[in-house]
Amino acid sequence: MILNFLKTKRGKDPFSITLINNYENAKLFFSKNRTNCFRIYDKEITQIPLTIDYYDGFFVINHYWKQSSTESDIEKLVKKVNSSILESFEVSQENIFHKYRKINYDKELFLNSEGISSFLTVYESGIKFEVNLKDYLDTGIFLDHSPVREIAMKLGKEKRVLNLFSYTSSFSLYVLKGGAKFCRSVDISNTYVDWSRRNHILNNIDKSLYEIRRDDCLNHLKFSNKKGEKFDFIIMDPPTFSRSKKIKKSVFNVQKDHVEMINNGTNLLSEGGVILFSNNLTTFKMDKQILKEYIVKDISEKTIPYGFKNKKIHKTFLIRKK
Ligand SMILES: C[S@@+](CC[C@H](N)C(=O)[O-])C[C@H]1O[C@@H](n2cnc3c(N)ncnc32)[C@H](O)[C@@H]1O
Protein backbone atom coordinates (compact mmCIF):
# COMPACT_ATOMS: atom_id res chain seq x y z
CA MET A 1 0.00 0.00 0.00
CA ILE A 2 1.45 3.39 -1.00
CA LEU A 3 0.11 6.53 0.64
CA ASN A 4 0.25 9.80 -1.29
CA PHE A 5 0.93 12.98 0.63
CA LEU A 6 0.49 16.64 -0.29
CA LYS A 7 3.44 18.63 -1.52
CA THR A 8 4.38 21.71 0.51
CA LYS A 9 5.42 25.16 -0.69
CA ARG A 10 7.77 27.56 1.01
CA GLY A 11 5.98 29.36 3.89
CA LYS A 12 6.82 32.94 4.81
CA ASP A 13 5.27 33.73 8.20
CA PRO A 14 5.97 31.87 11.48
CA PHE A 15 2.58 30.10 11.42
CA SER A 16 3.07 28.76 7.86
CA ILE A 17 6.60 27.65 8.72
CA THR A 18 5.34 25.84 11.85
CA LEU A 19 2.61 24.13 9.80
CA ILE A 20 5.04 22.93 7.12
CA ASN A 21 7.64 21.71 9.63
CA ASN A 22 5.04 19.90 11.74
CA TYR A 23 3.47 18.32 8.66
CA GLU A 24 6.81 17.14 7.22
CA ASN A 25 7.81 15.60 10.58
CA ALA A 26 4.41 13.97 11.10
CA LYS A 27 4.46 12.60 7.55
CA LEU A 28 7.81 10.90 8.20
CA PHE A 29 6.60 9.54 11.53
CA PHE A 30 3.23 8.24 10.32
CA SER A 31 3.86 7.04 6.78
CA LYS A 32 5.98 4.17 8.17
CA ASN A 33 2.86 3.19 10.06
CA ARG A 34 0.60 3.34 6.99
CA THR A 35 -1.33 6.31 8.43
CA ASN A 36 -2.53 9.39 6.56
CA CYS A 37 -4.59 11.15 9.23
CA PHE A 38 -2.84 12.98 12.08
CA ARG A 39 -2.57 16.25 13.99
CA ILE A 40 -0.28 18.87 12.49
CA TYR A 41 -0.90 21.86 14.75
CA ASP A 42 -1.86 22.02 18.43
CA LYS A 43 -2.15 25.62 19.70
CA GLU A 44 1.63 26.15 19.58
CA ILE A 45 1.33 29.87 18.81
CA THR A 46 -0.55 31.78 21.54
CA GLN A 47 -2.29 34.10 19.06
CA ILE A 48 -3.55 31.08 17.05
CA PRO A 49 -5.29 28.91 19.69
CA LEU A 50 -6.67 26.11 17.52
CA THR A 51 -5.88 22.61 16.37
CA ILE A 52 -5.41 21.40 12.79
CA ASP A 53 -5.78 17.78 11.76
CA TYR A 54 -4.69 16.41 8.40
CA TYR A 55 -6.86 13.80 6.65
CA ASP A 56 -5.28 12.60 3.41
CA GLY A 57 -4.93 16.03 1.81
CA PHE A 58 -7.79 17.70 3.71
CA PHE A 59 -7.53 19.95 6.77
CA VAL A 60 -9.91 20.07 9.74
CA ILE A 61 -9.53 23.10 11.95
CA ASN A 62 -11.05 23.06 15.43
CA HIS A 63 -11.70 26.48 16.92
CA TYR A 64 -12.24 26.76 20.67
CA TRP A 65 -14.36 29.76 21.55
CA LYS A 66 -13.86 31.65 24.77
CA GLN A 67 -16.76 33.64 26.21
CA SER A 68 -14.79 36.77 25.30
CA SER A 69 -14.17 35.83 21.63
CA THR A 70 -16.04 37.99 19.14
CA GLU A 71 -17.21 36.97 15.68
CA SER A 72 -14.70 39.33 14.17
CA ASP A 73 -11.85 37.64 16.15
CA ILE A 74 -12.94 34.28 14.76
CA GLU A 75 -13.33 35.62 11.21
CA LYS A 76 -9.81 37.06 11.30
CA LEU A 77 -8.45 33.75 12.49
CA VAL A 78 -10.30 31.81 9.77
CA LYS A 79 -8.84 34.09 7.08
CA LYS A 80 -5.35 33.80 8.54
CA VAL A 81 -5.50 29.99 8.73
CA ASN A 82 -6.95 29.64 5.22
CA SER A 83 -4.29 31.87 3.69
CA SER A 84 -1.46 30.07 5.52
CA ILE A 85 -2.70 26.63 4.42
CA LEU A 86 -3.15 27.79 0.82
CA GLU A 87 0.29 29.37 0.90
CA SER A 88 1.94 26.26 2.37
CA PHE A 89 0.26 23.34 0.57
CA GLU A 90 -0.85 22.58 -2.97
CA VAL A 91 -4.56 22.55 -2.15
CA SER A 92 -7.67 24.63 -2.76
CA GLN A 93 -10.16 26.21 -0.35
CA GLU A 94 -12.48 23.16 -0.67
CA ASN A 95 -9.92 21.07 1.21
CA ILE A 96 -10.32 23.16 4.36
CA PHE A 97 -13.03 22.56 6.99
CA HIS A 98 -13.57 24.75 10.05
CA LYS A 99 -15.36 23.53 13.16
CA TYR A 100 -16.30 25.66 16.11
CA ARG A 101 -16.48 24.38 19.68
CA LYS A 102 -17.33 26.21 22.86
CA ILE A 103 -14.92 25.67 25.66
CA ASN A 104 -17.39 24.19 28.22
CA TYR A 105 -17.84 20.53 27.41
CA ASP A 106 -21.58 20.50 28.00
CA LYS A 107 -22.12 23.48 25.73
CA GLU A 108 -20.35 22.22 22.63
CA LEU A 109 -21.63 23.99 19.59
CA PHE A 110 -21.13 23.03 16.00
CA LEU A 111 -22.02 26.04 13.91
CA ASN A 112 -20.89 25.32 10.39
CA SER A 113 -18.02 24.17 8.30
CA GLU A 114 -16.85 24.92 4.84
CA GLY A 115 -15.53 22.72 2.07
CA ILE A 116 -17.50 20.71 -0.47
CA SER A 117 -16.61 17.06 -0.46
CA SER A 118 -17.36 15.41 2.85
CA PHE A 119 -16.83 11.62 2.68
CA LEU A 120 -13.35 10.22 2.47
CA THR A 121 -11.55 6.98 3.26
CA VAL A 122 -8.38 7.44 5.32
CA TYR A 123 -5.86 4.99 6.76
CA GLU A 124 -4.62 4.54 10.29
CA SER A 125 -2.14 1.68 10.82
CA GLY A 126 -3.23 0.34 7.43
CA ILE A 127 -6.87 0.07 8.59
CA LYS A 128 -9.48 1.90 6.51
CA PHE A 129 -11.83 4.45 8.08
CA GLU A 130 -14.70 6.30 6.48
CA VAL A 131 -14.57 9.90 7.65
CA ASN A 132 -17.03 12.72 7.09
CA LEU A 133 -15.25 16.04 7.42
CA LYS A 134 -18.24 18.27 6.97
CA ASP A 135 -21.51 17.16 8.52
CA TYR A 136 -20.65 16.57 12.18
CA LEU A 137 -18.49 18.13 14.85
CA ASP A 138 -16.41 14.93 14.99
CA THR A 139 -15.06 13.29 11.85
CA GLY A 140 -15.56 9.56 12.49
CA ILE A 141 -12.19 8.88 14.05
CA PHE A 142 -10.80 10.37 17.26
CA LEU A 143 -7.13 10.96 16.46
CA ASP A 144 -6.14 11.40 20.13
CA HIS A 145 -6.95 7.73 20.75
CA SER A 146 -4.60 6.29 18.16
CA PRO A 147 -2.08 4.88 20.72
CA VAL A 148 -4.99 3.53 22.82
CA ARG A 149 -6.21 1.64 19.75
CA GLU A 150 -2.72 0.11 19.35
CA ILE A 151 -2.84 -1.05 22.98
CA ALA A 152 -6.35 -2.46 22.46
CA MET A 153 -5.17 -4.31 19.36
CA LYS A 154 -2.55 -6.19 21.43
CA LEU A 155 -4.88 -6.85 24.36
CA GLY A 156 -7.64 -8.14 22.08
CA LYS A 157 -5.60 -10.82 20.30
CA GLU A 158 -7.49 -14.15 20.35
CA LYS A 159 -9.99 -12.65 22.79
CA ARG A 160 -13.76 -12.20 22.92
CA VAL A 161 -14.21 -8.45 22.98
CA LEU A 162 -17.05 -6.09 23.94
CA ASN A 163 -16.65 -2.52 22.67
CA LEU A 164 -19.04 -0.13 24.44
CA PHE A 165 -19.79 3.41 23.16
CA SER A 166 -18.34 2.13 19.91
CA TYR A 167 -19.13 5.24 17.75
CA THR A 168 -17.84 4.26 14.26
CA SER A 169 -16.10 1.11 15.66
CA SER A 170 -12.47 2.19 15.40
CA PHE A 171 -11.51 0.06 18.44
CA SER A 172 -13.45 -2.90 17.03
CA LEU A 173 -11.63 -2.72 13.70
CA TYR A 174 -8.26 -2.65 15.46
CA VAL A 175 -8.99 -5.68 17.66
CA LEU A 176 -10.46 -7.63 14.73
CA LYS A 177 -7.46 -6.82 12.53
CA GLY A 178 -5.25 -7.83 15.47
CA GLY A 179 -6.77 -11.30 15.64
CA ALA A 180 -9.67 -11.05 18.12
CA LYS A 181 -11.93 -14.12 18.13
CA PHE A 182 -15.06 -11.99 18.18
CA CYS A 183 -16.07 -8.38 18.80
CA ARG A 184 -19.46 -6.92 19.69
CA SER A 185 -19.83 -3.15 19.23
CA VAL A 186 -22.60 -1.26 21.05
CA ASP A 187 -23.75 2.32 20.53
CA ILE A 188 -27.01 4.21 21.08
CA SER A 189 -26.96 6.04 17.76
CA ASN A 190 -28.43 4.62 14.54
CA THR A 191 -26.16 6.90 12.53
CA TYR A 192 -23.04 5.46 14.16
CA VAL A 193 -24.31 1.89 14.06
CA ASP A 194 -24.71 2.25 10.27
CA TRP A 195 -21.31 3.92 9.99
CA SER A 196 -19.79 1.03 12.00
CA ARG A 197 -21.29 -1.49 9.58
CA ARG A 198 -19.79 0.38 6.62
CA ASN A 199 -16.37 0.46 8.34
CA HIS A 200 -16.46 -3.31 8.95
CA ILE A 201 -17.40 -3.94 5.30
CA LEU A 202 -14.72 -1.49 4.10
CA ASN A 203 -12.11 -3.63 5.88
CA ASN A 204 -13.48 -6.97 4.64
CA ILE A 205 -14.03 -8.30 8.16
CA ASP A 206 -15.59 -11.76 8.19
CA LYS A 207 -19.23 -11.41 9.26
CA SER A 208 -19.00 -14.32 11.71
CA LEU A 209 -16.45 -12.38 13.77
CA TYR A 210 -18.56 -9.40 14.72
CA GLU A 211 -21.90 -8.07 15.87
CA ILE A 212 -23.06 -4.44 15.95
CA ARG A 213 -25.93 -3.52 18.27
CA ARG A 214 -27.85 -0.33 18.90
CA ASP A 215 -28.40 -0.10 22.65
CA ASP A 216 -27.86 2.04 25.72
CA CYS A 217 -24.55 0.73 27.08
CA LEU A 218 -25.61 0.92 30.73
CA ASN A 219 -28.65 -1.21 29.88
CA HIS A 220 -26.58 -3.49 27.71
CA LEU A 221 -24.24 -4.29 30.61
CA LYS A 222 -27.24 -5.29 32.76
CA PHE A 223 -28.77 -7.33 29.93
CA SER A 224 -25.48 -9.08 29.27
CA ASN A 225 -25.02 -9.87 32.99
CA LYS A 226 -28.55 -11.34 33.16
CA LYS A 227 -27.72 -13.60 30.23
CA GLY A 228 -24.52 -14.73 31.95
CA GLU A 229 -22.31 -13.64 29.05
CA LYS A 230 -18.53 -13.49 29.44
CA PHE A 231 -15.91 -11.39 27.61
CA ASP A 232 -12.12 -11.48 27.90
CA PHE A 233 -11.66 -7.83 27.02
CA ILE A 234 -14.10 -4.93 27.44
CA ILE A 235 -13.47 -1.48 25.98
CA MET A 236 -15.31 1.46 27.54
CA ASP A 237 -14.63 4.83 25.95
CA PRO A 238 -17.71 6.86 26.86
CA PRO A 239 -18.43 10.53 26.17
CA THR A 240 -17.90 13.01 28.99
CA PHE A 241 -21.54 13.92 28.92
CA SER A 242 -24.47 13.07 26.71
CA ARG A 243 -28.16 13.74 26.60
CA SER A 244 -30.54 11.50 24.70
CA LYS A 245 -34.19 10.53 24.76
CA LYS A 246 -33.06 7.04 23.81
CA ILE A 247 -31.16 6.39 27.06
CA LYS A 248 -33.02 5.31 30.17
CA LYS A 249 -31.47 7.91 32.48
CA SER A 250 -31.78 10.58 29.73
CA VAL A 251 -28.41 12.07 30.79
CA PHE A 252 -25.06 10.27 30.84
CA ASN A 253 -22.28 11.76 32.93
CA VAL A 254 -18.98 9.88 32.99
CA GLN A 255 -17.90 11.14 36.40
CA LYS A 256 -21.13 9.89 38.00
CA ASP A 257 -21.83 6.85 35.83
CA HIS A 258 -18.40 5.20 35.60
CA VAL A 259 -18.84 3.41 38.93
CA GLU A 260 -21.95 1.44 37.92
CA MET A 261 -20.47 0.82 34.48
CA ILE A 262 -17.17 -0.57 35.73
CA ASN A 263 -18.81 -2.68 38.45
CA ASN A 264 -21.21 -4.24 35.91
CA GLY A 265 -18.37 -4.61 33.41
CA THR A 266 -16.11 -6.54 35.79
CA ASN A 267 -18.95 -9.04 36.38
CA LEU A 268 -18.81 -9.86 32.68
CA LEU A 269 -15.07 -10.53 32.64
CA SER A 270 -13.83 -14.07 32.15
CA GLU A 271 -10.89 -15.34 34.26
CA GLY A 272 -7.90 -13.03 33.66
CA GLY A 273 -10.04 -10.56 31.70
CA VAL A 274 -9.40 -6.83 31.47
CA ILE A 275 -11.34 -3.60 30.99
CA LEU A 276 -9.80 -0.71 29.07
CA PHE A 277 -11.52 2.43 30.33
CA SER A 278 -10.83 5.81 28.74
CA ASN A 279 -12.48 9.22 28.70
CA ASN A 280 -11.77 12.84 27.81
CA LEU A 281 -12.87 14.61 30.99
CA THR A 282 -9.71 16.45 32.07
CA THR A 283 -10.88 16.60 35.70
CA PHE A 284 -11.88 12.91 35.79
CA LYS A 285 -11.24 11.10 39.09
CA MET A 286 -11.58 7.34 39.36
CA ASP A 287 -13.98 6.54 42.21
CA LYS A 288 -12.45 5.28 45.49
CA GLN A 289 -14.59 2.13 45.54
CA ILE A 290 -13.26 1.13 42.11
CA LEU A 291 -9.64 1.82 43.17
CA LYS A 292 -10.13 -0.29 46.31
CA GLU A 293 -11.96 -3.21 44.76
CA TYR A 294 -9.97 -3.79 41.55
CA ILE A 295 -6.42 -3.60 40.22
CA VAL A 296 -6.47 -0.25 38.42
CA LYS A 297 -3.51 0.88 36.33
CA ASP A 298 -3.42 4.44 34.98
CA ILE A 299 -1.71 4.20 31.55
CA SER A 300 -2.62 7.73 30.36
CA GLU A 301 1.01 8.85 29.95
CA LYS A 302 1.67 6.14 27.34
CA THR A 303 -1.39 7.01 25.30
CA ILE A 304 -0.78 10.54 23.99
CA PRO A 305 -0.11 10.53 20.24
CA TYR A 306 2.65 12.23 18.31
CA GLY A 307 1.71 15.85 17.62
CA PHE A 308 -0.61 16.30 20.63
CA LYS A 309 0.74 18.93 23.01
CA ASN A 310 -2.03 18.55 25.61
CA LYS A 311 -0.86 15.58 27.66
CA LYS A 312 -4.15 15.53 29.56
CA ILE A 313 -6.38 15.13 26.53
CA HIS A 314 -7.71 11.80 27.83
CA LYS A 315 -7.32 9.48 30.80
CA THR A 316 -6.91 5.77 30.22
CA PHE A 317 -6.95 2.89 32.70
CA LEU A 318 -6.62 -0.90 32.64
CA ILE A 319 -8.87 -2.55 35.23
CA ARG A 320 -8.61 -6.17 36.40
CA LYS A 321 -10.31 -8.18 39.13
CA LYS A 322 -8.17 -8.93 42.22
C1 LIG B 1 -16.74 9.65 22.62
S1 LIG B 1 -17.69 8.76 21.46
C2 LIG B 1 -16.95 7.21 21.63
C3 LIG B 1 -15.71 7.10 20.82
C4 LIG B 1 -15.32 5.70 20.45
N1 LIG B 1 -15.12 4.90 21.62
C5 LIG B 1 -14.11 5.71 19.56
O1 LIG B 1 -13.00 5.58 20.06
O2 LIG B 1 -14.25 5.92 18.36
C6 LIG B 1 -19.19 8.58 22.28
C7 LIG B 1 -20.19 7.59 21.66
O3 LIG B 1 -21.05 7.17 22.71
C8 LIG B 1 -22.35 7.04 22.21
N2 LIG B 1 -23.24 7.11 23.39
C9 LIG B 1 -23.48 8.15 24.22
N3 LIG B 1 -24.25 7.75 25.26
C10 LIG B 1 -24.48 6.43 25.09
C11 LIG B 1 -25.17 5.43 25.83
N4 LIG B 1 -25.78 5.71 26.97
N5 LIG B 1 -25.18 4.16 25.36
C12 LIG B 1 -24.56 3.85 24.19
N6 LIG B 1 -23.87 4.74 23.46
C13 LIG B 1 -23.83 6.01 23.89
C14 LIG B 1 -22.50 8.13 21.19
O4 LIG B 1 -23.52 7.82 20.25
C15 LIG B 1 -21.09 8.16 20.58
O5 LIG B 1 -21.03 7.33 19.46
Primary descriptors:
binds S-adenosylmethionine; 30% helix; 2 domains; 322 residues; Transcription Regulator spoIIAA; Rossmann fold; 7-stranded mixed β-sheet; alpha/beta; 4-stranded mixed β-sheet
Detailed description of the structure:
With 322 residues, the protein is an alpha/beta fold. It has two domains: 14-132, Transcription Regulator spoIIAA (2-Layer Sandwich), CATH 3.30.750.80; 143-321, Rossmann fold, CATH 3.40.50. It is 30% helix and 28% strand. It is built from eight helices and 15 strands. The strands form four sheets. The chain has a seven-stranded mixed beta sheet with strand order 9-8-7-10-13-15-14, with helices on both faces. A four-stranded mixed beta sheet has the order 1-2-3-4. Helix 1 packs across helix 2 (71-88), helix 3 packs across helix 4 and helix 6 (217-226) runs parallel beside helix 7 (254-267). The chain is globular, with a radius of gyration of 20 Å. The termini are far apart. Residues 104-113 have low confidence and may be disordered. The protein binds S-adenosylmethionine. S-adenosylmethionine binds next to helix 4 and helix 6. S-adenosylmethionine binds at residues 142, 145, 165-168, 170-171, 187-189, 192, 216-218, 237, 239, 242, 247, 252.
